[in-house]
């Protein structure tokens, strides 16, 4: 997949160094919480396809979606660190553990992600290159416990699926933990029409974007924009589809579990019932 997007370095510095999230937010948008329940259900049903798992707090996932839309038309690169005081809950990890579960696959395995910080923004190639101010100690106090050497990395694919490109695969070779991709389909599209001409398995947070039925028999130039809406972001964008994946540098997929502030998956009760059936 090759994506060409505009890069706006003149307006990125303040955005990059102000956007940081470490403390839990009380509530997640109800529509997004419902989507996270369905995502966890798929993570449960497909658990045998993975050899490891990673737990991402729902409030943090929500903020990542907002950041991604705020930074348009750029992609963003987000460094994430674990919370050393928050290991995966044993009962949760057991529920999602596959028969081929393997320990020690990556750094930070077994701990919930606790902090996120935007490091860069740019196109699909430049976004992976750390700015000069992230290669010295100038901002070490705001980088978390690893002083810039984050355990995990996430970057966004605006109006494109969450499937690694060649540039993504190359960048992942330097990651001690896991790489994650957040793909979003939204409108208004602006200069980024939906790009889906790429092969790969989609992991959707919710359902696939589909056209909504129209009562009008007249053909409209804007008819392709009439897609189901999952929710509306603070930026005003309508969100039609969300995708999220995690993988290791060798291409091995990692199962993502979206958890609440107590470390339990969204939809925990329903998951337990299905497990006990």
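Sequence proposed for the structure above (277 residues):
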């Amino acid at each position: 997949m090759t994506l060409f997007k505009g890069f706006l370095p003149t307006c990125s510095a303040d955005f990059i160094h102000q956007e940081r999230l470490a403390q839990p937010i009380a509530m997640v948008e109800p529509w997004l919480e419902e989507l996270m329940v369905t995502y966890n259900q798929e993570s449960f049903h497909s658990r045998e396809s993975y050899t490891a798992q990673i737990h991402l707090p729902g409030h943090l996932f929500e903020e990542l979606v907002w950041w991604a839309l705020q930074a348009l038309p750029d992609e963003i690169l987000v460094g994430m660190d674990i919370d050393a005081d928050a290991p995966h809950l044993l009962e949760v990890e057991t529920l999602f553990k596959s028969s081929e579960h393997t320990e020690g696959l990556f750094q930070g395995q077994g701990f919930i992600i606790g902090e996120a910080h935007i490091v860069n923004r740019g196109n699909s190639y430049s976004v992976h290159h750390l700015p000069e101010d992230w290669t010295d100690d100038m901002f070490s106090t705001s980088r978390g416990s690893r002083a810039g050497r984050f355990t995990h990395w996430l970057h966004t694919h605006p109006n494109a699926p969450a499937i690694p490109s060649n540039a993504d695969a190359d960048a992942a070779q330097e990651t001690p933990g896991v790489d994650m991709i957040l793909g979003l389909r939204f409108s208004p599209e602006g200069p980024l029409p939906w790009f889906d001409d790429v092969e790969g398995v989609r992991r959707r947070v919710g359902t696939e974007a589909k056209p909504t039925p129209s009562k009008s028999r007249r053909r409209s130039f804007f008819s392709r924009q009439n897609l189901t809406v999952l929710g509306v972001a603070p930026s005003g964008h309508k969100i039609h589809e969300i995708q999220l994946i995690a993988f290791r540098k060798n291409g091995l997929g990692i199962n993502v579990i979206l958890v609440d502030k107590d470390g339990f998956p969204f939809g925990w009760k329903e998951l337990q019932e299905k497990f006990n059936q």
